[in-house]
Amino acid sequence: MTEEVFTLRINGRTTRWTGDPLAPLADVLRDGLGLTGTKIGCRTGECGACTILLDGRPVMSCLLPVAAVQEMDIRTIEGLASDSRFEALADAMAACGGAQCGYCTPGIMVTLSAALQHPDWFADSGYEAALKNNLCRCTGYQAIREAIAQVQGGATSTAVAAPAGAGPAKEVASR
Amino acid sequence: MSPVVTPHTDLPDKIHGRTRYVADLHLPGELVGAILRSPHAHARIVSIDVSRALAIPGVHAVLTGKDVPHPAFGPTQYKDWNILASDRVRFVGDEVAAVAAETPEAAAAALNAIDVVYDPLPAVFSPEEALKSGAPVVHDEKPDNRPMHIKIERGDVDAAFARAAIVRGGRYTTNRIYQGHLEPIGVIATWAEAEGLTLITPSHIPYRARETYAAAFGLPEEKVRIQVPPIGGSFGAKYVHKAHLIAAALARAARRPVRIVFDRYEDMLTAHPRVPLTIDIRIAADAAGRFLGKDVTVWADAGARVYWSPNVLATACSRPDSLYHFGSVRAEGHLVYTNHSPTTCMRGFGNAEMLFAVESVIDEIAEGLGMDPAEVRLKNIVRKGETTVHGYRLDSCELEACVTRVMELSGWSRRKDLPKYRGLGMALGNHVSGYRGIDPRFEGSTAVARLRADGQVEVETGEIDLGQGMSATYAGIAARVLGVDPARVLVKSGDTGRYPFGIGTLASRSTVIGGNAVRLAAERLREALERFAEEALGPGARWRDGVAEADGKVYDLAELARLYRARHAGDVLEARASYTPDTDFPDPSFYGNPSPAYPFAAHVAEVEVDPETGRARVTGYWAVHDAGVVLNRAAATGQVVGGVAQGIGWALMEDLKTHSGAVQNLSLLDYRMPGMADVPPVVVEFVEVPDPHGPFGAKSVGEVAIDPVPAAVANAIAHALGVRGKALPLTGEVIWRALHDDGRAAPLMR
Is residue B381 helix, strand or coil? Predict the structure, then answer.
């Protein structure tokens, strides 16, 4: 195994890491740097649990060799907490029950944080498009939609469902 | 005092990525464990040579069947497990050898360097084939390949069918569903001579898993400790697993901690899916739509080893009989060994599968009689106060209210006017809140409630939170008894070496069984606080809403705790209580009242089928539940919506496809689970009438949430198309073939 030294910019700090250039960024973050908020669900880019932000865009860190991300801005779930819109979403997720087992949740939060910062990226199809690469087996996604609706000021877009049992039933029935 | 409002106390940590699951934990000196698996569905092991593996630098242990004990053990009464195979492998993925090494690379190299010579044997993959004489025998101890055979009959079924106005039925088959937990299976094992074995692993039934593992190593139960970190989803898959045992054997051999964390491929290969059932069913009714008899024969594919499949089969053969009055019922169940990977529990097991068949046939009867399917159901459902055909005592039942409400919510009356390719389907469901038959020795739960020195209340339970919000619900129950804020109650569980013995989280038992124990322990703590207030503050002291009052002064819990510590040599005030439900162990004919409380649900699904692709899309879903009094609305609603989403995946897209015993689609790309776009808005309502046995009137909700879903979706598709799918999943391909009737659809659709 070749070892090289890499300079990584993670959550606003510069870190040096030595190892295999082909090591997946997810492993470097977790095992090398102790940032275990990034979860491993599949290692094949199919579940979204390892989503991080690379120069502000959500990407799956299990597919990304560490050599490819030098000089780029890497942000993990641990680096998002200072943002007030993120915290508002986190509060809404907790209040709505937007996580159950919680394993997929950091990846979902990272994806949504990008959508909060850049709503234009997902303007046409709303948050559905943003979250299409994040699997959740517990919640059925509805409480996540409700949390998003809450931080959008209670307004429901076409992509965001009405809270369960909250709206007049007839409206739902006659959709 | 308001009911629980916090959905889950652990959510802020989970949402911020601060929760440490087993894969996030490490012990000093830890080695990486890896398992060599059989590539054959059935083969004799001729020889195993590990010498090359042992020579690889960094390898600390290489184990084969020769190096581990071979007692008769297993998680059920069918003791057919081993730690590693000794002479034969019985499924693709069967565990042949294991290594512990310093790095994943060394472990992988060691696996590659183990030379196994196999002599392939004939294999069998269909339960019906396996029952034929001359079929390959999977376990020599069971030459007929049938570890379990159930026969249940109540009433005169043949007479009922003879006088029926209508009989409908057919063969229904259910698919091999992967539980789909996002956190792969993992374990860290350590061994010490004095303490024995410690396993850090997310089992939601750790005390029973401990018994199985103790038996495997010939250890007393107390020498096995399971510590349960937060569980990243299970749905049945993580209760008990061979990987735990193999990690333990490696740790014992290497005298170092050993960690095994699966990748998704290995997880899908060995998570052991939902038990696939083949169901032959007939239901007879009179001309008015009243059921007269139900007759089913079920073949359950246990795979090559018994995990939890006997209970799945028994549930399939009996549970829906306590949902409707069938008049007379007969069930024959065959649990059959095959050379498939073992199958096991998944949420709603047995019941949801049988309800797929039952609810489909009910729709056919309604159609045959020209009646509304909802009307036929309302004529036959069970009601409060009844004792069902198998002895279930329904001390609460709001099923009729659920049906009428779901009809209103879904706009059921528009069903007859829907255009072609759109359909509405209804299905009902029932479940238990704990099941007496799980453990022959006892049912119940024990909890401890303790006043900590800082005035917080600590609750300990033997039950396990697996993300469903149990801890928050228990905090709410204790808070309500004590008159304090739920945020001041901390619930602890998940360590067999420390917390009260408990059966664990299965059979939807945590809210009612564990919740009642928490309620009782909190009541005892309150009584103790009342006594202590008088002891410390004088006979005039009064206890009210979480504080004591004496001589016009108010003493909060922190002050009482300080006083208690000072007067009792530093001790803390604590109370312990057990709850034993008034239930019956089912007799050999499966008669008896096995649960203190039965939840019910009525669901309606709306689908739209694209005739070009055959793909069915669920466009609307309505779920009305009788869960008694809802203690934690966000969590209960989340259980229902999550169950509906899983049921939609089950009905429309999920299937572990096997070929000669090997699963063909071992990735989340090839095994598609519902994404956000696959789940429609789900309207959830509860009909809240207190159950007399549940804590504050609550009943369970976790499993009944999925029970009706495959049937509701299948009924909606049948309504949309005019042809009925009898084999799950109803994928676009299956429906397209049915629509184009090219002949190949015949086995799948009517």
Answer: strand
Active-site residue flag, B141: no
CA pair distance A97, B8, nearest whole angstrom = 7
Direct distance between the N- and C-terminal alpha carbons of chain B, in angstroms, rounded to an integer: 55
- ipTM field: 0.95
Whether residues A164 and B669 touch (CB distance < 8 A) is answered with no
B645-657 pLDDT tens trace: 999 999 999 999 9
User: Which residues of B321-431 form beta strands (DSSP E)?
Assistant: 329-337, 422-430
State the burial class of residue B234 (Cβ atoms within 10 Å of its Cβ: 0-12, 13-18, 19+).
buried
Mean per-residue pLDDT, A142-171: 57
Per DSSP, the three-state class of B678 is: helix
For residue A102, give the nearest of B23, B467, B684 by CB distance: B467
Percentage of chain B surpassing pLDDT 70?
98
Whole-number Å distance between alpha carbons of A53 and B528: 53
In whole angstroms, give the CA distance from residue B168 to residue B373: 14
B562, burial (CB in 10 Å: exposed 0-12, middle 13-18, buried 19+): middle
- Identify any residues that bridge with B200 across adjacent strands, giving them in sequence order: B188, B227
Are residues B258 and B151 in contact, defined by beta-carbon separation less than 8 angstroms?
no
pLDDT in tens, A87-117: 999 999 999 999 999 999 999 999 999 988 8
Could you tell me if B602 and B405 are in contact, meaning their C-beta atoms sit under 8 angstroms apart? yes
Outline where B150-302 has alpha helix (H): 157-162, 206-217, 242-254, 264-270
Are A141 and B679 inside 8 Å of each other by CB? yes
What proportion of chain B, given as a percentage, has pLDDT over 90? 95
Measured between beta carbons, the chain A residues lying within 8 angstroms of B642 are 100, 137-140
- Find which of A138, A158, A170, A171 to mutate to test the B interface (most B CBs within 10 Å of its CB): A138
Average pLDDT of the segment spanning B137-163? 98
- Written as six digits, the tokens of A2 are 């070749």
- Interval B592-641: pLDDT, tens: 999 999 999 999 999 999 999 999 999 999 999 999 999 999 999 999 99
Cβ separation of B677 and A96 shorter than 8 Å? Answer: no
Interface residue of B676, B682, B684, B685 to substitute, partner A, most A CBs within 10 Å: B676
Partners of A141 on chain B (C-beta within 8 Å) are 641, 645, 676, 679
Q: What is the pTM of this model?
A: 0.95
